[in-house]
Amino acid sequence: MKPVRLAVIGVGALGQHHARILSAMGGVELVGVVDSRETQGREIAAKFGTQWFCDTDGVIGNTDGVVVAVPTVAHDAVARPFLERGTAVLMEKPLAHDYETALRLHRISMFRRGILQVGHVERFNPAFELLQQKSGIPLYVRCQRVSPYTFRSTDIGVVHDLMIHDIDLALSLTGSTVESVDSFGAVTFGPHEDLAMARLRMANGAIVDLTASRMNPAPERTIQVWSDRGFVSADLQSRKVTCWAPCAAMAANPGMVRDIVAATPNPLTLKDEVFSKWITSETLQASAADALTAELQDFVSCIREGRRPRVSGEDAVAAMEVADRVLSVMTGWSWQTSSGMQQRRAVA
Predict the structure, then answer these.
(1) Residue-level pLDDT at 135
(2) Has this prediction a pTM greater than 0.85?
(3) What torsion, rounded to 10 degrees, do the Cα atoms 205, 223, 135, 282 define?
(4) 230 — alpha (psi -120 to 50), left (phi > 0) or beta?
(5) Which residues pair with 4 in a beta bridge?
(6) Mean pLDDT over all residues of the chain?
(7) How many CA atoms lie within 13 Å of 118's alpha carbon, on the beta-carbon side?
(8) Phi, psi at residue 340, to the nearest 5°?
(9) Kind of pairing between the strands at 28-34 and 240-246
(10) How far is CA 340 from CA 80, 160, 186, 332, 343, in A?
(11) Do residues 81 and 75 touch, judged by C-beta distance below 8 A?
């Protein structure tokens, strides 16, 4: 089978991991890495047995696909020439620095009938995949994604840096569009928001609460779903998934609590039975499989088979549209000026 020829553009903190994985992946030829920093580029190229190029001229027209892992503000300029040629592109998230640019890139890929995949890697997290299997129809979703300040991705705020992951997960889980948005944010190091909270009211009636911060002492990535089946919680770092569901008798008779209390001499003893007799629970450990490897394997398969990626340009544009709505209605506080952030124009 002819190998899929790929290049990685931008081999910084994340791009070098793309290069590492692709260099060892069967059926793939890593034809080069592109980075304007010669020392970094040559080091990564030598480490993974490929060539270094200072710009994209060295790989354009010589690959089946490229992985773009440059700063967000450069996504449009770097990826557009490849999309215009119909070359497959895996773009690190977010797709672009704003909604209009993201939509333009998606439209180019559609016009050229190319593949545009976007690196919302949490879709490939085995804990999320398990949560999705265990959840029924979501009624309420709560996501928390917080971390210490890393001094990376300072060209964008926390909404486009972190929250957009959970916006994408929420859209995937609910299968619905957003009717309304409320949000709050805070600037710490600046100039963009470093803390953001948002409530999304979905067209199908579901409620989604999102919290993202890059000013937390310890990282946390969790998602909770209340659905018609019960409750499922996933820790996306430890990959533990906990499920609670009503027993068959409770599910059949929601008002049975009155019968239970009436038949019990001392109702205070019932609290010890709630999570054993009336509500069933199980804790599952999701696979340790690497999500980034799974994402890249999906990209390679899409190129071979000509199919739609799990996270397409259309999906990424939908997440960007919601992210821009979160920012457009955001009110908040700036630690640097000790004053409120000016509220942006609301988007209906």
Answers:
(1) 93
(2) yes
(3) -140
(4) left
(5) 28
(6) 91
(7) 25
(8) -70, 145
(9) unpaired
(10) 38, 21, 9, 6, 9
(11) no
| Helix H or strand E segment including 142 | strand 138-146
Contact call for residues 161 and 153 (beta carbons, < 8 A): yes
Q: What are phi and psi of 144, to 5 degrees?
A: -130, 125
User: What SS3 class is residue 145?
Assistant: strand
Q: Does 272 or 82 have the greater pLDDT score?
A: 82
Q: CATH for 4-121+291-310? A: 3.40.50.720
Question: Does pLDDT of 338 surpass 70?
Answer: no
Question: How large a percentage of the chain has pLDDT more than 70?
Answer: 95
Tell me where in the chain the CATH 3.40.50.720 domain(s) lie: 4-121+291-310
Handedness of CA 38, 40, 43, 47 (dihedral sign): negative
Q: Residue 339's pLDDT band (boundaries 50, 70, 90)?
A: low
pLDDT digits (tens, 9 = 90+) for 223-272: 999 999 899 999 999 999 999 998 887 777 777 777 777 777 777 777 77
Lowest mean per-residue pLDDT among 16-30, 63-77, 141-155, 289-303: 141-155
Which amino acid type is present at position 71?
Answer: P
Compute CA distances 254 → 66, 204, 243, whole Å.
Answer: 54, 23, 19
Structure tokens at 300: 């390679």
What is the token pair recorded at 333? 């506080």
Cβ–Cβ < 8 Å for 256, 250 = yes
Q: pLDDT tens digits, residue range 84-127? A: 999 999 999 999 999 999 999 999 999 999 999 999 999 999 99
Give the separation between CA 262 and CA 265, rounded to whole angstroms: 8
Q: Cis (ω within 30 of 0) for the bond into 94?
A: yes
Nearest Cα residue to 346 out of 326, 322, 332, 318 = 326
Chain centre to alpha carbon of residue 238: 17
Are residues 194 and 186 in contact, defined by beta-carbon separation less than 8 angstroms?
yes
Cα 325 to Cα 178: distance, rounded to the nearest angstrom: 10
